[in-house]
Design goal:
Elements (H helix, E strand, L loop, with lengths): L1 H24 L3 E2 L10 E15 L2 H13 L4 H24 L4 E13 L2 E13 L3
Parallel strand pairs: 1-3
Antiparallel strand pairs: 2-4, 3-4
Length: 133
Amino acid sequence: MLEAAILIEVTLVIETASRTTSNRMTDITITTTDTLEGQTISDYLGVVSGEAVIGANVVSDMAAGIRNVVGGRSGSYEKKIATGRSEAIDDIQAEAADLGADAVVGASFDYEEMAEGMLWVNLSGTAVTLDDA
């Protein structure tokens, strides 16, 4: 019983820390452009990236296969891709925050099929500090 209580407490601490970190990271702007309008880049901190590998289950694969034959969109795959993008954004924001960045410029997504049913989502850009931040 004590082990379960300790596990629950540790889980809550981790979830709270994660939310706190995520809220702090939302201040980091990510843009596909090389500049931020109205702000001056003061320092280039280096390339940062965020990655996510997402997989589909058998039911999603079968449903997508049927839609591929008859036409239409695969909502389950679209949700998985959106989740992968979101995870990649969280990762790049965390890496940029670790460098003390205010923003990431020149960001670009890349999608690659790694294996049957596995998709790699990558987001990379340049972490920068701003004079007007």
